[in-house]
Amino acid sequence: MKNYELLTIFKPSLDSEELDKAVDKISSDVKASKGEVVSVDKMGRKKLAYDLQGYRDGFFTTLVVSLPADSIVEFKRTLKLNDNVLRFMFMEASKKTEANV
Prior knowledge:
This protein is α+β, with helices and mostly antiparallel strands. The protein has helices at 16-32, 72-81, 95-100; strands at 2-10, 36-52, 55-67, 85-92.
């Protein structure tokens, strides 16, 4: 399994409890895809450079996850279907990131 970094932008209309539930939902999706969550970093609410689905800001989170290669496509599909996610970026974690974890 490789480590991947997942940057997610959540809707700003979520309160802190709903945001925690949304992050837990993504964590459970990782576990359902036979992976594991290495670390979670909630960076807070930030202003966006341009409107996303009518929102001017969003809650940013970064998760480092370890997933098998055959389950990545299905995991990305579940992220696209999540109504609370405005945008996400899923990339292979660099060696420097893995060393810091």
